């Protein structure tokens, strides 16, 4: 009896060790529970967010509220510089939104063509694309795109790139801001701006200089009355939506600024957010798509 007891006692630690190893193996093979976008954002740290650069931020003041635009100087430096010059000269103050085309864009500018440019330039290089260099940040989406070899995000903007052509460019997603032009590629210096308010018109990519994106205030633009004229232009001047004032955020007293932070797109948190949207695990979903379009990736903004 004593001998048998000793043999059994010797067996117990070995069996327990095997059970522990098996449990560890099962745990290693079991994927971590998928998180929702809300859970990803709730777990985001302070370093996952960045404040807007006041020198690269515009405030468009309408009767219905403020529209905050973040400029994209990495992709359109000449346009960003010219826009700041126009704004600081008061070029847009007192102008109006002239066009609201259903499922497409809203656009503002000088309907009468009487504004002077002052020190701003009347012609600019197209800036439809930029050189694809090693220092250009790019967080690639894992899914294929019908308009570009690769799509992803660069400094918080939806973007595309073509390694063979050595080019990168911003893409026409909801809320992106473009410089309207005529047939001449250099005829869009930023004196007329449009914002995408409908389904993503990606056919415009590389044909217009995209100069930034709206980070707050899209509800102000997207709900404007639709124009009844050709291309959604308002047929009567009385329908124009007045622009009170446009300012560079850096020129606005600190207490009057919109204190916003945007989620960085070069972080593990952002990649987790993308995956949460590619494969929705919310209770309502029954079939996760396993795919996401560049323009369906949300770019979160919060008040700091």
List the defining traits of the structure above.
alpha+beta; about 300 residues; Cyclophilin; single chain; five-stranded antiparallel beta sheet; 5 helices; 2 domains
Summarize the structure.
This protein is α+β, with helices and mostly antiparallel strands and 304 residues long. Helix content is 20%, strand content 25%.
Rg estimate, integer Å: 26 Å
* Low-confidence residue ranges: 1-12
> Please, how many helices?
5
- CATH-defined superfamily of the largest domain: Cyclophilin-like
Q: Portion of residues in helices?
A: 10-25%
Helix/strand/pairing category: alpha+beta
Strand order of the largest sheet: 2-3-13-11-12-5-4-14
State which percent range the strand residues make up.
25-35%
The tally of beta strands, per DSSP, is 16
Assembly type of the shown chains? Answer: single chain
Helix and strand run: HHEEEHEEEEEEEEEEHEEHE
CATH topology label of the largest domain: Cyclophilin
**How far is it from the N-terminal to the C-terminal residue, by CA?**
73 Å
Overall residue-averaged pLDDT value: 91
Class of the largest domain in CATH? Mainly Beta
CATH architectural arrangement of the largest domain? Beta Barrel
Give the tally of structural domains.
2
């Amino acid at each position: 009896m004593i001998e048998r007891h000793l043999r059994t006692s010797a067996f117990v630690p070995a069996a327990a060790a095997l059970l522990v190893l098996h449990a560890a193996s099962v745990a290693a093979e079991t994927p971590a529970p998928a998180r929702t976008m809300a859970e990803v954002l709730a777990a985001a740290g302070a370093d996952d967010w960045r404040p807007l650069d006041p020198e690269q931020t515009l405030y468009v003041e309408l009767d219905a509220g403020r529209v905050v635009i973040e400029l994209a100087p990495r992709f359109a430096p000449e346009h960003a510089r010219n826009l700041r010059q126009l704004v600081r000269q008061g070029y847009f103050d007192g102008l109006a939104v002239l066009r609201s085309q259903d499922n497409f864009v809203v656009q503002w500018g000088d309907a009468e063509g009487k504004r002077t440019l002052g020190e701003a330039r009347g012609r600019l290089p197209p800036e439809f694309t930029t050189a694809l260099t090693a220092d250009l940040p790019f967080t690639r989406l894992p899914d294929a795109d019908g308009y570009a070899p690769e799509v992803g995000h660069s400094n918080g903007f939806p973007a595309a790139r073509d390694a063979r052509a050595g080019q990168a460019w911003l893409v026409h997603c909801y809320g992106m801001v473009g410089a309207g032009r005529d047939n001449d590629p250099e005829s869009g210096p930023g004196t007329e701006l449009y914002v995408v308010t409908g389904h993503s018109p990606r056919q415009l990519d590389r044909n217009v200089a995209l100069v930034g994106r709206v980070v707050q205030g899209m509800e102000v633009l997207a709900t404007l009355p639709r124009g009844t004229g050709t291309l959604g232009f308002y047929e009567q001047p009385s329908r124009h939506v007045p622009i009170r004032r446009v300012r560079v955020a850096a020129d606005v007293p600190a207490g009057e600024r919109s204190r916003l932070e945007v989620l960085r797109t070069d972080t593990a948190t952002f990649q987790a957010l993308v995956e949460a949207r590619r494969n929705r695990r919310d209770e309502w979903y029954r079939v996760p798509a396993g795919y996401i379009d560049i323009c369906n990736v949300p770019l979160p903004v919060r008040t700091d």
